[in-house]
Amino acid sequence: MSNAKERMVARAARELRPGMVVNLGIGLPTKVVNHLPADFPVCLHTENGLTGIGPTLPADQASRNLIDAGGAYVSTIPGSAFFDSATSFALVRSGRLDLTMLGAFEVAANGDLANWKIPGKFSPGVGGGIELAQKARRVAVLTTHTDRAGNPKLKKACSLPLTAKGCVARVFTDMAVIDIAPEGFTLVETAQGVSLAEIIEATGDVLHVPDTELPNF
Amino acid sequence: MSNAKERMVARAARELRPGMVVNLGIGLPTKVVNHLPADFPVCLHTENGLTGIGPTLPADQASRNLIDAGGAYVSTIPGSAFFDSATSFALVRSGRLDLTMLGAFEVAANGDLANWKIPGKFSPGVGGGIELAQKARRVAVLTTHTDRAGNPKLKKACSLPLTAKGCVARVFTDMAVIDIAPEGFTLVETAQGVSLAEIIEATGDVLHVPDTELPNF
Amino acid sequence: MKLPDKQCSLQDAIAHVKDGDTVMLGGFGVPGTPFTLIHALVQHGARNLTIVKNDANEPDMGVDHLLQSGLVARLITTHLGLNAHAIELMNTGQIDVEFNAQGILAERIRAGGAGLGGFLSDIGIGTELAEGKQIIEQGDKTFLVEPALRADVALLHADRADSFGNLAYVATARNFNPLMAMAADCVIAEAEAVLPLGALAADDIHTTGVFVDHVTELGALSKEYAVVQR
Amino acid sequence: MKLPDKQCSLQDAIAHVKDGDTVMLGGFGVPGTPFTLIHALVQHGARNLTIVKNDANEPDMGVDHLLQSGLVARLITTHLGLNAHAIELMNTGQIDVEFNAQGILAERIRAGGAGLGGFLSDIGIGTELAEGKQIIEQGDKTFLVEPALRADVALLHADRADSFGNLAYVATARNFNPLMAMAADCVIAEAEAVLPLGALAADDIHTTGVFVDHVTELGALSKEYAVVQR
């Protein structure tokens, strides 16, 4: 992982508050745990039926029956609990997830999220993402600011099929922390070594920049 | 319990077939178990969350946490399982009960059952009875043939609020075993010492009597 | 990471109940009824409550103490057969009673806990229990729409808990407790023992602590919990 | 009374599957997937099947063997991301695929198992996943009607069973298994151990044997069950 991505993940980790129940999506979000103190009081949930996810294990120490929703071999911690898939999503839909962090193809200025389908190219199914995005009390996105071709992922409107409407509260990228405010994308923090002009250039819609000095991460 | 009632319950017990899952309603139906062989292969269910009901226990041997739906202190047997009330009725509604035996205020010639409410006199709530009556694969009723005033409980139509429509397949009384056939009440067996005329007299609708000789119980 | 600690005193826990709240109570008869939390609620004195419980216990036990204190405006239940006092309050119009078929009540609570709006059932069609309910056609079948049920507070009884609020019930004391654990904004569990994290096996926990907000350990059990001598 | 014995050979159990059946398969990835029953189903050769499973496993594993054998007409699932072969069959029209949101699939199966017609959910409103679904208003809220899902046969994997068919799962191998156990006319479980009655504690059983028709004990586990080396 590049330094910029590593800093993005480390910054995102500071979004977790003591006592929260959190679901970390496949990919970059799962790396967030590497930046939490060992005794940080938080409960991690995975859709396939576990609260209290412990550290990821190498194959030679793994249990064949213990994976997370991304297929990684994980472990338990004292107080972990297993349950079935209906109970797992009951928890999600009834509002017991304080925070989820997800990846994105596109985030719109109104908080719309597209992260599951590229028609004609990529349509593996929506999995559990739609319920996480729609029902977690707070949805944060972790993504590179632009795609591989350099096109903005933060856009005026999503062009891809939506995962959920108006769900995203905050976006962590390799360039900035950006909130979805009533007026649209609003800059909160900037990454080290990135200029304001570069962030504005890489963002696909108006970026509101407060008058105050912004923190650097 | 009178001899006639005892014989009625003993006869009803022979309705249980090996391998069945059975729910025995409060009152006379629960006495049916006393007439089963010790190793009879059957699974008894109770609505408050137990499959594999064992013998009823006296208070000094009872567990404070182990009752049946009628409040009797029961026990477990090898292979008993506990579950919550939603799972308990999932089992009922999805057709896993082969047989239920219930009490009755009235049974109609079309199989309608009334056993939970007497407007103005008795309305404690329907409890689990409606789902048992509507969803068990076979519903049998155990009841005295007439009420305390001598009025028939088997009637052309129910006058009381229904528990479920057209659900009853067979009625065991202190006078007879009677099936609900497409043409109405049909005599199957007669109790010892009871004449055909007495049964017809005590039945509130046409009683169809086959030409063949009927067993006596 | 370490799972958060949710241990709480009985008084601090019950203080979450407000006038006018809907309060779910676990239990089917004696087993699983949170008698100690009910007693604390009577002391707390929140008024105009809607109580959701399978039954009204028996006179001078559990729910009946709430009824006697005049704190209950409405009771959503399945059967009052063992509490003549509750039936009298109903018949004289002192409390409003809504009867549900038992499995439908259980399922409505679970639906609330599962974040659903309700479910489709054919239970009660053709009886007075169907009266007033919304009807929906699905293909050639007719169903009643049963709305989900949620509460402001759920009061539960567990056999064992841990400090995160994971719960394990025993025998038929499970009944409505795990369903109500899912279906309230504030979930309070009393447990006969609150154990250290890790003392409950992860496969044998009946309610994940994620659903539980506060857990309190019981001291010596009052005689309400004991076998009823009839 | 003694609980009935439901032990059965793998071949006798799988013979219940008929051409055209809907077959539910437990499992989320490897954990909980009944690989041995799937292998027996491939040997059995029932055709034109509708398969219900969270995912299609990975190429050359589990569900993929059914796909390779050409026995599958339709797949109701949530995510095929780890099986490029399944995606190719879908894209070339060789199988019909219905995607459900994962929790909605779980809940549809549970609704089938609970004898319901379906449930009301707001998941997917405003996205293409809501297209074609029946809409219902409840007060000021809008819901989609999600129909219950049942199968002719469910094939499950359990860690331990007893001779009555009581089941206990381990860790994240639980997933869809207890839901599917409720939702099929014929439920067949493979278990790593089938124990005598009484060997499973009544409070720790995850699926009551009442839901299970046949149980078969596995011998040595094939390598499909093992940790995947990537």
What does this structure look like?
The complex is a heterotetramer, with two copies of chain A (217 residues) and two copies of chain C (230 residues). Chain A has a single domain (3-202), classed as Glutaconate Coenzyme A-transferase (3-Layer(aba) Sandwich). Chain A contains four helices and twelve strands. Chain A has helices at 3-13, 85-93, 129-135, 196-202; strands at residues 21-24, 43-46, 50-54, 75-82, 99-102, 106-108, 113-114, 139-142, 154-155, 168-172, 176-181, 184-190. In chain A, the strands form two sheets. Chain A has a nine-stranded mixed sheet with strand order 4-3-2-1-5-8-10-11-12. In chain A, strand 10 (168-172) and strand 11 form a beta hairpin. The model of chain A has no long low-confidence stretch (mean pLDDT 96). By secondary structure, chain C is α/β, with parallel strands linked by helices. Chain C is 20% helix and 27% strand. Chain C has six helices and eleven strands. Chain C has helices spanning 10-14, 35-44, 63-68, 84-91, 102-113, 177-182; strands spanning 22-25, 49-52, 72-77, 96-99, 118-121, 135-138, 141-147, 151-162, 167-168, 184-195, 214-217. In chain C, strands 1, 2, 3, 4, 8, 9, 10 and 11 form an eight-stranded mixed sheet that branches. In chain C, strand 6 and strand 7 form a beta hairpin. Chains in contact: A-C, A-D, B-C, B-D, C-D. Chains A and D meet through helix 2 and helix 3 of A and helix 5 and helix 6 of D. Strand 5 (118-121) of chain C pairs antiparallel with strand 5 of chain D, so a sheet runs across the interface.
